[in-house]
Amino acid sequence: MMRIIHLLMLRKKYLFNLPNKRYKDESHLKWIRTLPCLLCKAGFYSHSKQVQAHHLLKPYDGEGRGMGMRSTDRNVIPLCLHHHAQLHTKFGNEFKFFESFGLPADFGQVWAKKLFEKKRFEDETDDDLPF
């Protein structure tokens, strides 16, 4: 019995002392919000000029999701207010959402990865040269 209690205490200690490894990058989120909505840019009806950074429900790297947690800031795409609300209220699933527009199911995942890599590349090569 004591061994079970000891194992439960160790488990509790392990579960509640995990380091926070969620990737956060406010500059990336600000940059995403300056981009046009992915669906409006793809030729669908433009609803709003205000763009939000949507954290993917199914991250491309599988990182950062859990009960009550959003994905990391690597896994964001720009969506206008209308499309962002539509994704959450009408579909609740990114794969169904993008497929309803005739796009591949992993459209959001592919773009989140492209956008993160582009921003990271720009940050690494940022200098004061005029070319």
Describe what is shown at a glance:
By secondary structure, the chain is mainly α.
Mean pLDDT: 76
- How much of the sequence is in beta strands? 5-15%
Largest sheet: 2 strands, antiparallel
**Coarse structural class:** mainly alpha
Number of helices, where a helix is a run of at least 4 consecutive DSSP H or I residues: 6
Walk across the major sheet and give the strand order: 1-2
- Gross morphology: globular
Radius of gyration: 19 Å
Given as residue ranges, the uncertain stretches (5+ residues, pLDDT < 50) are 127-131
Query: How many DSSP E strands?
Result: 2
End-to-end gap: 71 Å
The proportion of residues forming helix, as a percent range, comes to 40-55%
How do the SSEs run, as a string of H and E?
Answer: HHHEEHHH
Please outline the helices and strands.
Blueprint: H1 2-16, H2 26-34, H3 38-41, E1 51-55, E2 76-80, H4 81-91, H5 94-100, H6 107-124
Antiparallel strand pairs: 1-2
Can you describe this structure?
A two-stranded antiparallel ribbon has the order 1-2. The chain has six helices and two strands; from the N terminus they run αααββααα. The radius of gyration is 19 Å and the shape is globular. The protein is mainly alpha-helical and 131 residues long.
Write a concise keyword list for the protein shown above.
131 residues; mainly alpha; disordered C terminus; 2 strands
